[in-house]
Design goal:
The chain is mainly alpha-helical. 60% of the residues lie in helices and 0% in strands.
Length: 120
């Protein structure tokens, strides 16, 4: 849970959701030009570090050999499959709807998490 007074230190974060809360809070610090491609690269590195260091846990964005649950949910939500990444598809959708890509990402991710929590 984010402190009411703002950003946290990296050492205070416990999982990828905490990290994404920090990105949401200050996207300009983490993502040049608010590019979802940069976020996708960060998250791929995050997952790779988990694998290298033997850290078990769910990861919604990508795992070796699979696109990940968020991508599968996104294809269903958008009503189409794509060979492109979740970042590319959200950027395309954002451009088509006139919504900033980072805003659309977090709107969709919140919806995904709510759907996932209801299914649990």
């Amino acid at each position: 849970m984010r402190r009411a007074n703002g950003p946290r230190q990296l050492t205070e974060l416990t999982d990828v959701y905490d990290f994404l809360d920090e990105v949401r809070l200050r996207p300009g610090m983490w993502l040049p030009r608010s590019s979802l491609k940069h976020l996708e690269s960060l998250l791929t590195g995050y997952r790779a570090a988990m694998v290298v260091h033997g850290v078990e846990g769910e990861f919604d964005f990508w795992s070796p050999g699979t696109q990940g649950p968020f991508t599968e949910w996104l294809w269903h939500r958008l009503g189409r499959e794509s060979p492109l990444s979740w970042a590319t598809e959200i950027e395309r959708e954002a451009e088509a709807t006139g919504v900033p890509a980072i805003e659309l990402l977090f709107r969709l991710f919140d919806e995904y998490r709510a759907d996932r929590d209801r299914a649990s």
